[in-house]
Design a protein that fits this description.
By secondary structure, this protein is an all-alpha fold. 83% of the residues lie in helices and 0% in strands.
């Protein structure tokens, strides 16, 4: 019975993380390439801003896509931190920040490498840097929150 509880706890801890990694690699396919995402973003922008220029449409589409990189890896970092902070492995619990960032960087680099192999995508180190920045920012915010939260409980 204990083994099932342990498996269940691990599934709850690592399941969301693994699902998110799967989502990232699905997004890395041609399904979410720039031409495909523009089919959604372009009509929405034209509806919101009827007089928008073509140059502005392209610029906003670009910024939305880069913001998505930053955000999806920020979420990945938080899910990794959640898994590692509650891990049964002492090393992962103690080095949660570094382990989470290493996972983010590994996924970011693999993601861009995968995209470089597809004709509908372009793999670029700059996107990896955006991804890693998103993850590092989320981890830094979480670390600061944890420090502030810890002080708050000590004052009580």
């Amino acid at each position: 019975m204990t083994e099932k509880l342990t498996f269940g706890r691990r599934a709850c801890r690592y399941g969301p993380l693994l699902l998110w990694i799967g989502l990232i690699f699905f997004a890395s396919t041609g399904n979410l390439s720039a031409p495909n995402t523009s089919r959604i973003i372009r009509p929405l922008l034209l509806w919101l801003f009827p007089g928008i220029t073509e140059a502005a449409l392209l610029q906003i589409h670009f910024l939305i896509r880069k913001s998505a990189h930053f955000t999806e890896y920020a979420v990945l970092a938080l899910l990794a931190a959640r898994a590692f902070l509650t891990s049964s492995q002492t090393l992962l619990r103690r080095r949660w920040w570094l382990a989470s960032l290493a996972l983010v960087a590994s996924c970011a680099l693999l993601d861009e490498y995968h995209q470089s192999l597809l004709s509908t995508r372009t793999g670029t180190i700059y996107d990896s840097l955006i991804d890693i920045s998103g993850g590092a920012s989320a981890l830094a915010a979480l670390a600061l929150w944890r420090v502030a939260h810890r002080k708050q409980y000590r004052e009580r």
